């Protein structure tokens, strides 16, 4: 149960900062692994700095976010996040993202996300 508590604390710190668009980075491991955005690419983006760059781009389109549900089992967690988006073309929507987490050695170590990529593709210019 100790891992569940620390994983929960890590996620609470992450999402509090993520919703404010600052202060979430402290709980991310240096060799963080991220998969998401393009399900045809199954190899993770590796490294804290690389993930920070992904989030800088994502932060331009999400206005607010809230955690709808969080299920934690040891160092593994599933979070359903709900986001309000405003795209560069002016379209605003609300949507859920399934976020699968792994914690390791007191840090968040990996994240795989699942969301409606079609809506993003049609509303974000290439």
From TrEMBL:
GO molecular-function terms, A-Z: isomerase activity
One Pfam family matching this protein: SnoaL_2
Keyword Isomerase: yes
Tagged with keyword Isomerase: yes
Keywords assigned by UniProt, alphabetized: Isomerase
All residue ranges annotated as the SnoaL-like domain in the record: 22-108
SUPFAM superfamilies, sorted: NTF2-like
Protein name: Ketosteroid isomerase-like protein
Organism: Chitinophaga niastensis
Lineage: Bacteria, Pseudomonadati, Bacteroidota, Chitinophagia, Chitinophagales
